[in-house]
Design a protein that fits this description.
The protein is α+β, with helices and mostly antiparallel strands. The chain contains 13 helices and twelve strands. This is histidine kinase.
Length: 423
């Protein structure tokens, strides 16, 4: 009952009391009636204050508060429900949810109402509300209205808009997950950097050890083959320089700004890598073919890093052919201009190839096709190529070898520096 309705009912009752009092003739009866009237008025003031308090609370609550009969017809709703559910009292009072809301919303409301009445206890559920501003998520608490005889008369419900709360919870959860990923990535980067240094340095050291063993063999010959020894020592010196370059290139790779870039002859890098790996190529019975374009333009880049890319690709190709016994182990290195602005460097092998289904992730860190591999070499290669504005890709049918190539932009190279490099 609204406050105006309450006041109207009381005014009518007061008129009736006044009429009864006027009809009383006996003074004693009239005095007794006056006492009763005073008690009624005192009780009325108490009820009026309580009713006003309850009415004020209900009408000014941001929550949607409502009551329904057992058949689902509304007997009360506050201003909060009008605003939250985009309805009016005139639309709802005496009607059911099916008369007011879309069918899917009404079915949801009615199902939760019935559940509360059947259990006879407070129930809690999440419900949807459609408004002009969009869908809203409500947390609804419903309790059955039970008569003194213990019969369920209907339900009373309070629904609170939790849309923003859920949105905030989701944003917070995503932020925590993002922070966790960033922390994991930082730890992974530290691990990758540490492992990459060990991985990259091990290669030239292995080459030095291999060439050292070969030199010892030639020293034991009578007479020693000095020409071969000279060539081996040259390769050892080259590998020592390579080890030093590895430290420099990895250090530059993880810096935000790299000041060590300059004009680079990729053909010269390819020749140097093949010379450095001569011992491994020979020991593995790998034949080599080169097709290095004579008109290949210089690249503006970091020589040590690009050498590391070619070295890794050639080294991987040698490893890939280790199990090849039914055909010639052939390594092919080629360079060519793709257009005026880019060049292509490719390394091909005649090994068993790469499963086409794995081509998309072989450049990811810690993904490897080798039994004892760490999965860092190609990941570092991709990082280096990307730092140079290029792209690294692989192709294979999974049967007849693999081709790994990278495309680099030519960039702007100082003419005087270019002449010095080419000579």
């Amino acid at each position: 009952m609204s406050q105006p309705e309450f006041e109207t009912h009381y005014a009518a009752l007061k008129r009736e009391i006044d009429a009864l009092e006027a009809d009383l003739a006996e003074p004693k009866a009239r005095k007794h009636f006056a006492d009763v009237r005073q008690r009624i008025e005192t009780l009325y003031e108490t009820l009026r204050e309580n009713h006003l308090l309850l009415h004020t609370v209900l009408e000014n609550s941001a929550a949607s508060i409502y009551a329904k009969r057992k058949d689902g017809r509304y007997t009360f709703l506050n201003r909060g429900m009008e605003m939250l559910c985009n309805v009016t009292r005139e639309q709802c009072l005496g009607r059911t949810d099916f008369d007011v809301f879309p069918i899917e919303i009404a079915q949801q409301y009615r199902s939760n109402d019935v559940a509360a009445m059947m259990t006879g206890k407070l129930s809690e559920s999440e419900e949807m509300s459609k408004t002009p501003a969009g869908d809203r998520l409500l947390l609804s608490k419903k309790v059955p209205l039970i008569s003194d005889a213990g019969e369920v008369q209907g339900i009373c419900g309070i629904s609170t808009d939790i849309t923003d709360l859920r949105r905030t919870e989701r944003a917070l959860r995503e932020a925590v997950e993002t922070l966790q990923r960033e922390r994991d990535n930082k730890l992974l980067n530290v691990e990758a950097a540490t492992a990459s240094i060990a991985h990259e340095v091990r290669q030239p050291l292995t080459a030095i050890a291999t060439n050292g063993d070969a030199a010892m063999s030639f020293l034991e010959m009578t007479p020693p083959d000095l020409n071969e020894l000279r060539a081996i020592l040259t390769r050892i010196i080259t590998d020592c320089h390579h080890a030093s370059e590895v430290f420099d290139s990895i250090s530059a790779l993880f810096k935000k700004v790299d000041h060590s870039r300059g004009p680079v002859d990729v053909n010269e890098i390819a020749r140097g890598v093949l010379q450095s790996l001569y011992g491994q190529l020979r020991d593995h019975g790998v034949a080599t073919e080169t097709e290095l374009a004579s008109d290949l333009p210089l690249i503006d880049g970091h020589q040590g890093q690009l050498r590391q890319v070619v070295f890794n690709l050639v080294h991987n190709a040698i490893d890939a052919m280790a199990t090849t016994t039914d055909k010639t182990r052939l390594l092919r290195v080629s360079t060519q201009p793709r257009d005026r602005n880019t060049i292509v460097v490719a390394v091909e092998d005649s090994g068993p190839g790469i499963d086409p289904g794995r081509l998309n992730n072989i450049f990811d860190a810690f993904v490897t096709t080798k039994a004892n591999g760490m999965g860092l070499g190609l990941a570092i290669c991709r990082m280096i190529v990307h730092r140079h504005g290029g792209q690294l890709s692989a192709s294979s049918d999974g049967k007849t070898g693999a081709r790994v190539q990278f495309v680099l932009p030519v960039g702007l190279v100082d003419t005087a520096l270019a002449r010095n490099v080419s000579h």
